[in-house]
Amino acid sequence: MLVEIEATGVCHSDLHVIEEDGWGHPFPVLLGHEGAGIVEAVGESVTTLAPGDRVVIGWKTACGTCAACKRGEPRQCRRPPAAPGRLHRADGTDLTPVLRTGTFATRTVVHEQAVAIVPRELHVDQACLIGCAVATGVMSVLETARVWPGARVAVIGAGAVGLSVVQGARIAGAAEIRVLDLDERKVEQARRFGATDASTRPVDFVFDVVGRRATFELGLSLLSAGGTFVLIGLSPEGERAELGLPELFSKRTRILVSHGGDHVAREDFPKLAAWALDGTLDLAGMVSRVAPLADWEAAISAMQSGDVIRTVLVP
Ligand SMILES: [Zn+2]
Ligand SMILES: [Zn+2]
Q: Is 185 helix (H, G, I), strand (E, B) or coil?
């Protein structure tokens, strides 16, 4: 289906694509995977949406036919369906949309399953964040880790995904939400989203939104016996870490990997949108800046410097 993009967030994964030589995407690449907009046209076989629907585009959708989907675990699907290639540059070269979405554009073509309808009352600048940062952070807490009420939680890295983990932990009823970041401004900022005063006691859950050796090893050291480590952040190629097997065994540490919070767009996006509308989730506070799409390079620099939580680009 053809979607007219109204707003798109600038995410670290777009930077990862740049830094990791395309991250497996054939060049030329169309960046952007956190978009929202209006359905403009649909293919003949599309039955669940119609032109005029306001949608959030999702990069992680379930295929419905793989082994994971067939055993009723669409959240574990690793074969998200893509629309047949329809994007080209002016010279006719095929253009690869990042994560099958490609939202740094005025229009994009995505698979029917890759969008979820959200209410028009939710401001589109905020709605787009649901497509990656918010779904990843909140669902890592509620689905991947299943944090329980009263749990002690630590979050390493307080960008948009980290702040969404903080909000997810607040929704789950965590008693303590400790935020660690090299940038003190971000630690302070996280209080607005639910971060609490921290004790020095070990925690039940660590969410590593950074994905480096130092954060992995720090995270393991913060865990209590029986604690759960959740890896969310993308690591650079070749990154390695060390862990002591006797300590792992005696502490019964669980290590989980979250692919975007294991979200399912059609199930989770409407719920996250409803939470944004009733104030359970603060999305407005996460939009630091709205800028024209043409300023995407400056927006990526601002993200690297830590000056913004999210820049939202508007075509
Ligand atoms: Zn992203
Ligand atoms: Zn599947």
A: helix
